[in-house]
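A reminder from the course coordinator: this example appears on the midterm review sheet, so study it carefully.

Given structure:
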């Protein structure tokens, strides 16, 4: 909207008395700003940049809108001068102004599916926007779809209780010093402690959590050695130990990765509980 057109609207609304002048002027200015803003961002303006006919249509449309708006304000002033109640005059004038206020802008569909390179450029552009308020990691939605209920229980247990002990049973003795054979791997009580429904599926659960980047299998031990003494007394561990003549136990641990820790805090626990949870993650090194 040009300065000359705005001055013409202001002179017209000056003819209105008191509150009517304020309301009419505000309505006219708001309408003009809304119409101009929408047209500047609409499809017609985008097309007008390269199409002469579209540019002419845009000019005529803006001129028509300004003419209707100017007539509406004049009608309001004339009606009030003739004794029509202010509320009725403004209501009638508002109906005329509504005719030129554009519909909400509907962004056009892209002409083609963005390439991987274009998506990457868009991602980097967003990373440079210091004012951008990003949502949680976009992979969280897909991960939730890929989790079984028992796996969610395992994650919550690890978040609250920390790294979990696990053991491998291998052959030992004199022969084991030269060549050791794996008898059983990844034996753990994590399923029982988490209260999973299908205990036999725990190895598959852990494989899936590892695939999703939520847990990490470490060669380090947990801090409390008593955790291993309880684990090594479990029936499945004893059965593996008794299956060979010279067994050997290798102690390991299972941790949440930093990504898994953030996922659990964002998706699986009450926000009010997050501040009271310990910091558990994968060990360094």
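Designed residues:
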């Amino acid at each position: 909207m040009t300065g000359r057109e705005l001055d013409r609207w202001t002179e017209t609304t000056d003819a209105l008395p008191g509150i009517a002048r304020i309301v009419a002027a505000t309505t006219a200015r708001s309408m003009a700003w809304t119409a101009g803003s929408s047209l500047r961002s609409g499809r017609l303006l985008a097309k007008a940049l390269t199409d002469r006919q579209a540019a002419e249509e845009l000019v005529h449309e803006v001129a028509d809108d300004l003419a209707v708006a100017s007539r509406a304000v004049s009608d309001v002033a004339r009606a009030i001068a003739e004794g029509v109640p202010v509320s009725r005059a403004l209501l009638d004038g508002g109906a005329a102004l509504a005719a030129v206020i554009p519909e909400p802008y509907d962004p056009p569909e892209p002409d083609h599916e963005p390439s991987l390179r274009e998506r990457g450029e868009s991602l980097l552009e967003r990373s440079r926007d210091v004012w951008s308020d990003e949502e949680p990691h976009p992979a969280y939605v897909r991960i939730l779809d890929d989790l079984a209920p028992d796996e969610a229980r395992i994650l919550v247990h690890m978040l609250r209780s920390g790294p979990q002990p696990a053991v491998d049973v291998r052959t030992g003795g004199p022969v084991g010093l030269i060549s050791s054979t794996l008898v059983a791997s990844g034996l753990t009580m994590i399923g029982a402690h988490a209260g999973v429904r299908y205990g036999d599926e725990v190895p598959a659960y852990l494989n899936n959590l590892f695939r999703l980047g939520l847990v990490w299998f470490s060669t380090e031990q947990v801090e409390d050695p008593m955790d291993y003494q309880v684990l090594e007394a479990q029936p499945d561990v004893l059965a593996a130990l008794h299956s060979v003549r010279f067994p050997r136990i290798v102690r390991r641990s299972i941790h949440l990765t930093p990504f898994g820790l953030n996922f659990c805090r964002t998706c699986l626990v009450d926000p009010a509980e997050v501040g009271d949870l310990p910091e558990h993650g994968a060990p360094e090194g």
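Confidence is low (pLDDT under 50) at residues 31-41, 281-285. The radius of gyration is 35 Å.
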